[in-house]
Write a structure and sequence with these properties.
Length: 261
Amino acid sequence: MMKAVIVEDEAFLAKMLQKMIAEVQPDCEILTTVNGVAEAVDWFKGHPEPCIVFMDIQLSDGVCFDIFEEVDLSNKGIIFTTAYDEYMQDAFEFNSISYLLKPIRKEALEKSFEKIGKIRGTLDQFSKTGSLDQLSQLMQQFKQLNPRFRERFMIARADGYIQLPVKEVACFYVEEKVVNAYTFDGKVHVVDFSLEKLEEELNTDQFFRANRQFILNMDAIDRLENYFGGKLVVRLKSHFDIERIVVSRSKAGMLKRWLDR
């Protein structure tokens, strides 16, 4: 039987999710429901790790990514359930199977379980033996489930189109509801994508969603500066005409870990 944990601070939503899981995947046993970071950390430290965790991001006592700093959850799949799409890029750094936006649709949950089905055998075997070889197999299967990353854009011009390789883009930013690609050589191109769509298609090893306005290329970052309230300011390299980019407290730790690899 498949086993899972729900991390959700709203009791009603937790019950609704549990009911939907029972309908979509009857053989999935919900071991427990926890409602915050501290409770989740305590539970995971004291119990064998489950195969699947349905995890809300904004919890009553912090963000769920704080859990990963306290306990090792690397050998299981995470299904993030949240009303916020700004954390999508961060979510896929934590072995996530999928990212479900609230209100959760039954069809989306079914697709998540379809992905689980493809790797369930490896998960079950790993949970029994914990061998490094099986963990390697598991992570390889996760990678195979994810689509290829975008390599270039077709940019429209008055006389036709040009190709813009992703590696030439220092950052993507929104200005007056238009998404622009700012290149390393100082050019600006309009791209016909939302930042949310770009997050899905860009390599998260190279690009980071800093806030609602910016997605940054690692190679464009010069330094980080402390800011009030636990926030960070990103300073780009000197030849970029962008004064500062503020990163929220909830994402500051993830940004530092992303850079410190």
